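Exercise 3.2. Students should predict the tertiary structure of the chain below and write it as C-alpha coordinates, then compare their answer with the key that follows.

Predict this chain's 3D structure.
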Amino acid sequence: MLALAYIHNADPYLGRLDYASLPQQALMEMFIAGIERRDRICDSCEDPTDATRWTGVTVDAQTQSITEIDWVAWNLSGFIDMQWLPATVVTVSLRSNSLRGAVDLTCLPPALTELNLSFNAFSGLLELRRLPLSLRQVDVYRNKFTGDVCLTELPGGLIFLDLSENQLSGALDLRSLPNTMEEFVGRSNIFTGNVSLTHLPESLRCLDVSHNQLSGSVDLTRLPQQIFYLYLNNNNFSGETDFSHIPELMALLNISTTNLSGEIHATQSQAGNFRVKNSNVKLVTVKSEFESNTRII
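Answer key:
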Protein backbone atom coordinates (compact mmCIF):
# COMPACT_ATOMS: atom_id res chain seq x y z
CA MET A 1 0.00 0.00 0.00
CA LEU A 2 1.65 3.18 -1.24
CA ALA A 3 0.42 5.39 1.60
CA LEU A 4 1.94 3.13 4.25
CA ALA A 5 5.24 3.09 2.41
CA TYR A 6 5.46 6.87 2.56
CA ILE A 7 4.50 6.89 6.23
CA HIS A 8 7.11 4.26 7.16
CA ASN A 9 9.83 6.04 5.18
CA ALA A 10 9.06 9.49 6.56
CA ASP A 11 11.78 11.28 8.49
CA PRO A 12 10.61 11.26 12.15
CA TYR A 13 12.32 14.63 12.70
CA LEU A 14 10.12 16.25 10.06
CA GLY A 15 6.91 15.53 11.89
CA ARG A 16 4.05 15.73 9.42
CA LEU A 17 4.67 14.29 5.95
CA ASP A 18 5.66 16.76 3.24
CA TYR A 19 2.34 17.11 1.43
CA ALA A 20 3.82 18.60 -1.73
CA SER A 21 6.15 15.65 -2.26
CA LEU A 22 3.44 12.99 -2.20
CA PRO A 23 1.82 11.60 -5.36
CA GLN A 24 -1.96 11.76 -5.59
CA GLN A 25 -2.20 7.97 -5.16
CA ALA A 26 -0.65 8.19 -1.70
CA LEU A 27 -2.75 11.24 -0.82
CA MET A 28 -6.00 9.53 -1.79
CA GLU A 29 -5.10 6.37 0.12
CA MET A 30 -4.43 8.44 3.25
CA PHE A 31 -7.64 10.43 2.70
CA ILE A 32 -9.73 7.22 2.92
CA ALA A 33 -7.50 5.36 5.41
CA GLY A 34 -10.04 5.83 8.23
CA ILE A 35 -13.05 4.66 6.22
CA GLU A 36 -14.38 1.25 7.13
CA ARG A 37 -14.77 -1.15 4.23
CA ARG A 38 -12.92 1.25 1.97
CA ASP A 39 -12.42 -1.62 -0.45
CA ARG A 40 -15.77 -0.56 -1.89
CA ILE A 41 -13.94 2.51 -3.16
CA CYS A 42 -10.47 1.20 -4.03
CA ASP A 43 -11.26 -2.52 -4.62
CA SER A 44 -8.68 -3.74 -2.09
CA CYS A 45 -7.50 -2.38 1.26
CA GLU A 46 -4.15 -4.17 0.96
CA ASP A 47 -3.49 -3.37 -2.69
CA PRO A 48 -5.68 -0.42 -3.82
CA THR A 49 -6.20 0.11 -7.52
CA ASP A 50 -5.07 3.30 -9.25
CA ALA A 51 -7.01 6.16 -7.63
CA THR A 52 -7.83 7.60 -11.04
CA ARG A 53 -10.00 4.51 -11.63
CA TRP A 54 -11.84 4.56 -8.32
CA THR A 55 -15.60 4.70 -8.60
CA GLY A 56 -16.93 8.21 -8.06
CA VAL A 57 -13.60 9.83 -8.90
CA THR A 58 -13.29 12.16 -11.90
CA VAL A 59 -9.95 13.02 -13.45
CA ASP A 60 -8.76 15.64 -15.90
CA ALA A 61 -8.48 13.94 -19.29
CA GLN A 62 -5.19 15.61 -20.14
CA THR A 63 -3.31 15.64 -16.84
CA GLN A 64 -4.96 12.63 -15.14
CA SER A 65 -5.20 14.78 -12.01
CA ILE A 66 -8.13 14.02 -9.73
CA THR A 67 -10.67 16.86 -9.85
CA GLU A 68 -13.92 15.48 -8.37
CA ILE A 69 -14.88 13.06 -5.61
CA ASP A 70 -18.54 11.98 -5.58
CA TRP A 71 -19.34 9.34 -2.98
CA VAL A 72 -23.00 10.14 -2.30
CA ALA A 73 -25.14 7.62 -0.40
CA TRP A 74 -22.51 4.86 -0.39
CA ASN A 75 -23.24 3.82 3.18
CA LEU A 76 -19.69 4.77 4.13
CA SER A 77 -18.70 4.88 7.80
CA GLY A 78 -15.56 5.80 9.66
CA PHE A 79 -13.36 8.89 9.40
CA ILE A 80 -11.78 11.05 6.71
CA ASP A 81 -8.74 13.29 6.86
CA MET A 82 -9.21 16.40 4.71
CA GLN A 83 -5.54 17.36 4.83
CA TRP A 84 -4.68 14.62 2.31
CA LEU A 85 -7.02 15.71 -0.47
CA PRO A 86 -4.99 16.30 -3.64
CA ALA A 87 -4.50 19.99 -4.45
CA THR A 88 -6.22 19.50 -7.83
CA VAL A 89 -9.61 18.52 -6.34
CA VAL A 90 -12.34 21.09 -7.05
CA THR A 91 -15.50 19.34 -5.79
CA VAL A 92 -16.11 16.91 -2.92
CA SER A 93 -19.51 15.39 -2.20
CA LEU A 94 -19.81 12.89 0.66
CA ARG A 95 -23.52 13.47 1.25
CA SER A 96 -25.77 10.84 2.84
CA ASN A 97 -23.26 8.54 4.51
CA SER A 98 -22.43 7.68 8.14
CA LEU A 99 -19.03 9.33 8.34
CA ARG A 100 -18.09 10.73 11.74
CA GLY A 101 -15.43 12.54 13.71
CA ALA A 102 -13.87 15.97 13.41
CA VAL A 103 -13.30 17.63 10.05
CA ASP A 104 -10.48 20.12 9.53
CA LEU A 105 -11.64 22.70 6.98
CA THR A 106 -8.47 24.80 7.29
CA CYS A 107 -6.45 22.57 4.96
CA LEU A 108 -8.76 22.10 2.00
CA PRO A 109 -7.40 22.10 -1.58
CA PRO A 110 -6.75 25.67 -2.75
CA ALA A 111 -8.92 25.29 -5.87
CA LEU A 112 -11.92 23.68 -4.15
CA THR A 113 -15.24 25.19 -5.25
CA GLU A 114 -17.84 22.85 -3.72
CA LEU A 115 -17.91 20.88 -0.46
CA ASN A 116 -20.93 18.80 0.54
CA LEU A 117 -20.75 16.90 3.84
CA SER A 118 -24.50 16.88 4.55
CA PHE A 119 -26.36 13.95 6.13
CA ASN A 120 -23.44 12.49 8.07
CA ALA A 121 -22.38 12.40 11.72
CA PHE A 122 -19.37 14.73 11.63
CA SER A 123 -18.76 16.49 14.95
CA GLY A 124 -16.53 18.98 16.70
CA LEU A 125 -15.91 22.63 15.89
CA LEU A 126 -16.64 24.11 12.47
CA GLU A 127 -13.78 26.41 11.51
CA LEU A 128 -14.85 28.70 8.65
CA ARG A 129 -12.13 31.35 8.84
CA ARG A 130 -9.56 29.70 6.58
CA LEU A 131 -11.61 28.30 3.75
CA PRO A 132 -10.19 28.37 0.21
CA LEU A 133 -10.93 31.63 -1.59
CA SER A 134 -12.26 29.57 -4.51
CA LEU A 135 -15.15 28.05 -2.54
CA ARG A 136 -18.65 28.73 -3.87
CA GLN A 137 -20.79 26.19 -1.99
CA VAL A 138 -20.50 24.66 1.50
CA ASP A 139 -23.14 22.27 2.82
CA VAL A 140 -22.85 20.66 6.28
CA TYR A 141 -26.59 20.14 6.80
CA ARG A 142 -27.61 17.55 9.39
CA ASN A 143 -24.40 16.68 11.19
CA LYS A 144 -23.31 17.09 14.82
CA PHE A 145 -21.04 20.12 14.69
CA THR A 146 -20.90 22.20 17.87
CA GLY A 147 -19.61 25.53 19.13
CA ASP A 148 -19.48 29.04 17.70
CA VAL A 149 -19.02 29.81 14.02
CA CYS A 150 -17.35 32.86 12.52
CA LEU A 151 -19.16 34.28 9.49
CA THR A 152 -17.08 37.42 9.09
CA GLU A 153 -14.16 35.87 7.18
CA LEU A 154 -15.89 33.72 4.58
CA PRO A 155 -14.50 33.44 1.02
CA GLY A 156 -15.47 36.49 -1.02
CA GLY A 157 -17.14 34.42 -3.74
CA LEU A 158 -19.23 32.12 -1.55
CA ILE A 159 -22.76 31.70 -2.93
CA PHE A 160 -24.35 29.01 -0.73
CA LEU A 161 -23.83 28.09 2.93
CA ASP A 162 -26.00 25.57 4.79
CA LEU A 163 -25.26 25.06 8.49
CA SER A 164 -28.70 23.77 9.42
CA GLU A 165 -29.58 20.94 11.81
CA ASN A 166 -26.36 20.85 13.79
CA GLN A 167 -25.69 21.93 17.38
CA LEU A 168 -23.99 25.22 16.62
CA SER A 169 -24.32 27.97 19.22
CA GLY A 170 -23.34 31.51 20.09
CA ALA A 171 -24.02 34.71 18.18
CA LEU A 172 -25.03 34.81 14.53
CA ASP A 173 -23.27 37.75 12.88
CA LEU A 174 -24.69 38.27 9.38
CA ARG A 175 -23.24 41.75 8.82
CA SER A 176 -20.24 40.63 6.75
CA LEU A 177 -21.62 37.92 4.50
CA PRO A 178 -19.94 37.86 1.06
CA ASN A 179 -21.48 40.14 -1.56
CA THR A 180 -22.06 37.06 -3.71
CA MET A 181 -24.10 35.14 -1.12
CA GLU A 182 -27.46 33.97 -2.47
CA GLU A 183 -28.58 31.49 0.19
CA PHE A 184 -27.73 31.21 3.88
CA VAL A 185 -29.35 28.51 6.00
CA GLY A 186 -28.74 28.33 9.74
CA ARG A 187 -31.99 26.60 10.73
CA SER A 188 -32.32 24.31 13.76
CA ASN A 189 -29.23 25.10 15.78
CA ILE A 190 -28.81 26.84 19.16
CA PHE A 191 -27.83 30.32 17.98
CA THR A 192 -28.63 33.02 20.54
CA GLY A 193 -28.73 36.81 20.88
CA ASN A 194 -29.72 39.57 18.49
CA VAL A 195 -29.31 39.34 14.74
CA SER A 196 -28.86 42.24 12.33
CA LEU A 197 -30.72 42.12 9.01
CA THR A 198 -29.72 45.60 7.84
CA HIS A 199 -26.39 44.74 6.21
CA LEU A 200 -27.29 41.67 4.18
CA PRO A 201 -25.78 41.34 0.69
CA GLU A 202 -28.01 42.53 -2.14
CA SER A 203 -27.47 39.19 -3.86
CA LEU A 204 -29.25 37.28 -1.07
CA ARG A 205 -32.32 35.34 -2.23
CA CYS A 206 -33.00 33.15 0.81
CA LEU A 207 -32.24 33.56 4.53
CA ASP A 208 -33.34 30.89 6.99
CA VAL A 209 -32.47 31.31 10.69
CA SER A 210 -35.61 29.60 12.00
CA HIS A 211 -35.75 27.21 14.96
CA ASN A 212 -33.01 28.80 17.05
CA GLN A 213 -32.98 30.85 20.25
CA LEU A 214 -32.45 34.25 18.66
CA SER A 215 -33.97 37.19 20.50
CA GLY A 216 -34.50 40.94 20.48
CA SER A 217 -36.14 43.11 17.86
CA VAL A 218 -35.69 42.78 14.09
CA ASP A 219 -35.29 45.58 11.57
CA LEU A 220 -36.95 44.68 8.27
CA THR A 221 -36.66 48.12 6.69
CA ARG A 222 -33.42 47.49 4.80
CA LEU A 223 -33.73 43.99 3.40
CA PRO A 224 -32.18 43.13 0.02
CA GLN A 225 -34.69 44.03 -2.68
CA GLN A 226 -34.21 40.70 -4.44
CA ILE A 227 -34.85 38.47 -1.42
CA PHE A 228 -37.54 35.85 -1.99
CA TYR A 229 -37.60 33.83 1.23
CA LEU A 230 -37.04 34.94 4.83
CA TYR A 231 -37.57 32.49 7.70
CA LEU A 232 -37.44 33.98 11.20
CA ASN A 233 -39.96 31.62 12.76
CA ASN A 234 -39.58 29.65 15.99
CA ASN A 235 -37.30 32.11 17.74
CA ASN A 236 -37.61 34.49 20.69
CA PHE A 237 -37.76 37.68 18.63
CA SER A 238 -39.96 40.36 20.19
CA GLY A 239 -41.10 43.93 19.85
CA GLU A 240 -43.06 46.18 17.50
CA THR A 241 -41.88 45.68 13.92
CA ASP A 242 -42.14 47.88 10.84
CA PHE A 243 -43.36 45.73 7.93
CA SER A 244 -43.91 48.62 5.51
CA HIS A 245 -40.65 48.07 3.60
CA ILE A 246 -40.98 44.39 2.76
CA PRO A 247 -39.52 43.88 -0.75
CA GLU A 248 -42.14 43.38 -3.45
CA LEU A 249 -40.51 40.14 -4.62
CA MET A 250 -40.88 38.48 -1.21
CA ALA A 251 -42.51 35.11 -1.85
CA LEU A 252 -42.51 33.95 1.78
CA LEU A 253 -41.94 35.71 5.09
CA ASN A 254 -42.33 33.39 8.06
CA ILE A 255 -42.46 35.02 11.51
CA SER A 256 -44.71 32.44 13.16
CA THR A 257 -44.01 31.33 16.72
CA THR A 258 -42.23 34.53 17.70
CA ASN A 259 -43.19 37.43 19.99
CA LEU A 260 -43.02 40.01 17.21
CA SER A 261 -45.90 42.46 16.88
CA GLY A 262 -47.15 44.90 14.28
CA GLU A 263 -49.30 44.87 11.16
CA ILE A 264 -48.67 43.51 7.68
CA HIS A 265 -50.83 45.05 4.97
CA ALA A 266 -51.22 42.73 2.02
CA THR A 267 -53.65 42.19 -0.83
CA GLN A 268 -55.65 38.99 -0.93
CA SER A 269 -53.27 37.54 -3.50
CA GLN A 270 -50.25 38.45 -1.35
CA ALA A 271 -51.64 37.23 1.98
CA GLY A 272 -50.44 33.69 1.39
CA ASN A 273 -46.85 34.96 1.33
CA PHE A 274 -46.88 35.65 5.06
CA ARG A 275 -46.89 33.22 8.01
CA VAL A 276 -47.82 34.87 11.31
CA LYS A 277 -49.36 32.06 13.36
CA ASN A 278 -48.51 32.11 17.08
CA SER A 279 -47.11 35.64 16.91
CA ASN A 280 -48.56 39.05 17.79
CA VAL A 281 -48.47 40.21 14.17
CA LYS A 282 -51.77 41.04 12.52
CA LEU A 283 -52.21 40.33 8.82
CA VAL A 284 -54.48 43.02 7.33
CA THR A 285 -55.96 42.35 3.91
CA VAL A 286 -56.29 45.43 1.72
CA LYS A 287 -57.56 46.00 -1.80
CA SER A 288 -55.00 46.09 -4.54
CA GLU A 289 -54.65 49.16 -6.73
CA PHE A 290 -56.29 47.22 -9.55
CA GLU A 291 -59.25 46.28 -7.35
CA SER A 292 -59.65 49.87 -6.14
CA ASN A 293 -59.75 51.22 -9.68
CA THR A 294 -62.11 48.58 -11.09
CA ARG A 295 -65.64 49.74 -11.82
CA ILE A 296 -68.67 47.61 -12.62
CA ILE A 297 -70.09 48.59 -16.03
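Discussion points: The first helix runs from residue 2 to 8. Confidence is low (pLDDT under 50) at residues 4-16, 292-297.
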